[in-house]
Amino acid sequence: MRSFLPTVDLRRFNANLTGVLILLFISFSLHAITVTDSLRTFSTAFTSQRLLCDACGCSASGGSMGFSTVGENSFLGVRSMYQRYESNDRLYTNSPWRLEQFRTYQIWTRFRISTKLELTAQVPWQHHNRETATGVQTRTGLGDVSINALYKLFSSENEAKTKSHRFHGGLGIKLPTGEFDQANSNTVNPAFQLGTGSFDFTILGEYVFEYQKSGVNVMASYLIKTENERRYRFGNQTNLAAIAYRKVTISHWQMLPQMGVAAEFFESNYSRRSRVDDTSGRVVFARAGFDVSRKWINAGFSAMLPVAQYLNNGKVRAHERLSVHLNLIL
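Below the sequence we write its predicted structure tokens.
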């Protein structure tokens, strides 16, 4: 097996790192501004960012932008996500790298059933396109709808209410509402799909630590894929992420700069119970984002840049991921 680290292109790494540092500098420059908020006020006003997006619903290497519980209110919102990749069939020494773009427009919501139990749901509309030897291929339509239930297993807060811990565990299901194209499963990037065509399941956990106006969020999820009616099964997927954030209030605007890392690991796909070569991989991203809230509205953006990757035996390259959202706090 090839070493993971030697696959990193140092020139791309330096360029990507520069972009991330610029974003982080802008975010943490806010820390110098005098703030007047309390931890509890911000926590109840701010909404969460949860997205569990598997290889087929979004792209060859996932699309997880995080699912942190920075705030705990119910909300209803819309989100737009963009991801860019390149693929190369390597049939010849001079085979070209071909552009692949994945756009997702999503309605998402979180509903708190009780102080400990909450439900989240995402309904995606996909628009994908990629270059081929004969032109541009496009896939447009409804993606896979997903529903998750999370339960607060542990929560504590000190008497001064300046320090808190909480841990959530949960289960999810993804419905085969997105179309699966059998022909695309035989291409360099078989994840160029609207959906997996199967019922898939998620096990997830999340830990949040907050001290005064700062916090750390650690997340993990494991997506279990099942075989679809065409006897094709996409590989199971592990998502890991850690995000640090800072709560800031200026006038009546509540802001949250954040930064972190995310890693995704993909197991091999199977067709008729035979392993499909060159379909596994791993990628590590640097992540930065910014959110702003006021009363019943919340908006924000997130950017992810790969710093190390090895996808589909080197036949697929991940580039930037961008996300913007607008939520109504219920």
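DSSP finds three helices and 19 strands in the chain.
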